[in-house]
Design goal:
Layout lengths: L1 E11 L2 E7 L10 E2 L1 E4 L9 H14 L2 E15 L5 E13 L10 E7 L1 H6 L5 H14 L1
Parallel strand pairs: 1-6
Antiparallel strand pairs: 1-2, 1-4, 2-3, 2-7, 5-6
């Protein structure tokens, strides 16, 4: 069985919202990341991925996004403990709020960065770079 994770490639003008993941996080602690989280079990549900993404953005960094959410890509990976994850990235336009590390167990820092800044940052993992490249291609 897979865990389902959603992430938002949130943009405002020419910047992307990224977080420094908390060192308390077991997966990729201390690395840069898009904001997101795991889909909860809800039984029969509509728009569960989009609602999960909006909830996670509010819970982790205190922002809202516009309703126009576009699929970017999906990948899968295996955590160190053997759990399998499906990760789905969506392109999102910033709507409101002042982003901050609202959930310190998950987020150490919050940044608005250009793609070039993210691509050259030493704490940018390959999956973040690939997700942003795909999101930028959809935006253009």
């Amino acid at each position: 069985m897979f865990y389902v994770n959603v992430e938002g490639a949130v943009f405002k003008e020419d910047k992307w919202l990224v977080i420094g993941r908390s060192l308390k996080e077991e997966h990729a602690g201390g690395m840069l990341s898009l904001v997101g989280g795991t889909v909860d079990h809800e039984g029969n549900s509509k728009d569960i991925l989009e609602r999960t993404l909006k909830r996670e953005l509010d819970e982790e960094v205190g922002i809202t996004i516009k309703d126009t959410i576009k699929f970017v890509r999906s990948t899968s990976f295996v955590l160190d403990d053997g759990r399998e994850v499906i990760d789905i990235v969506f392109l999102c336009e910033f709507d409101g709020g002042e982003p901050y590390a609202k959930s310190p167990d998950e987020v150490d820092s919050v940044y608005w960065m250009s793609a070039d800044e993210i691509f050259s940052h030493p704490k940018s993992p390959i999956w973040l770079k690939e997700s942003l490249q795909a999101a930028e291609a959809i935006r253009k």
